[in-house]
């Protein structure tokens, strides 16, 4: 009987130790992650979904703004400047189009074509992961630029 009592107490002690260790690990995880301290997992998932929706709306708004600008009278490229991760096309009407994620070969081609022609941005379209910007000169010369991101600035 004494042996059974000792085994039962050992099992209870093992279970309690396991439970205490699990709670300690969970508490440590929460304190090391600042988001976990503020949000529960369900709230965090809801916040993540909300931010994704806001990002999609902002992307559509920016694309619409660029499409409206390109539908009107656009300026020609005056200067091409290097930016971190891409280039910026400085236009004659004071606007700026930033392109990120373009190849080095495309940069060199664009610099050469821009010197010979007064290229104007004409249109853009979007694939699943990238954009294509069409530049056209007064002589009909066309240059298509593939970029990961595109943004219009005032």
Strand order of the largest sheet: 1-2-3-7
What structural category arises from helix and sheet content?
alpha+beta
- Write down the overall mean pLDDT: 83
Task: Bin the helical content.
Answer: 40-55%
What is the radius of gyration computed over CA atoms, rounded to a whole number of angstroms? 29 Å
Shape, principal axes of CA atoms: rod-shaped
Written description of the protein model:
The chain has 154 residues and is an alpha+beta fold. It has a domain at 60-153. Helix content is 52%, strand content 27%. It is built from four helices and seven strands, in the order αααβββαββββ. It has helices at 2-32, 34-38, 41-71, 104-116; strands spanning 77-83, 86-91, 96-100, 120-126, 131-136, 142-147, 149-153. The chain has a four-stranded antiparallel beta sheet with strand order 1-2-3-7. Strand 5 (131-136) and strand 6 (142-147) form a beta hairpin.
Please outline the helices and strands.
Blueprint: H1 2-32, H2 34-38, H3 41-71, E1 77-83, E2 86-91, E3 96-100, H4 104-116, E4 120-126, E5 131-136, E6 142-147, E7 149-153
Antiparallel strand pairs: 1-2, 2-3, 3-7, 4-5, 5-6
Keywords:
three-stranded antiparallel β-sheet, 4 helices, alpha+beta, four-stranded antiparallel β-sheet, 27% strand
In short:
It is built from four helices and seven strands, in the order H-H-H-E-E-E-H-E-E-E-E. It is an alpha+beta fold and 154 residues long.
């Amino acid at each position: 009987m004494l042996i059974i009592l000792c085994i039962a107490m050992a099992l209870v002690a093992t279970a309690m130790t396991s439970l205490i260790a699990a709670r300690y690990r969970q508490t440590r995880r929460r304190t090391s992650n600042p988001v976990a301290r503020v949000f529960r997992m369900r709230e965090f998932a809801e916040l993540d979904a909300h931010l994704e929706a806001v990002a999609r709306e902002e992307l559509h708004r920016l694309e619409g703004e660029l499409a409206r600008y390109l539908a009107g009278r656009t300026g020609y490229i005056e200067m091409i400047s290097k930016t971190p991760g891409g280039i910026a096309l400085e236009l004659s009407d004071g606007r700026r189009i930033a392109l990120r994620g373009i190849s080095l070969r495309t940069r060199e081609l664009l610099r050469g074509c821009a010197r010979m022609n007064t290229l104007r941005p004409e249109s853009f379209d979007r694939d699943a992961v990238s954009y294509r910007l069409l530049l056209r000169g007064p002589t009909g010369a066309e240059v298509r630029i593939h970029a990961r991101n595109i943004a219009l600035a005032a």
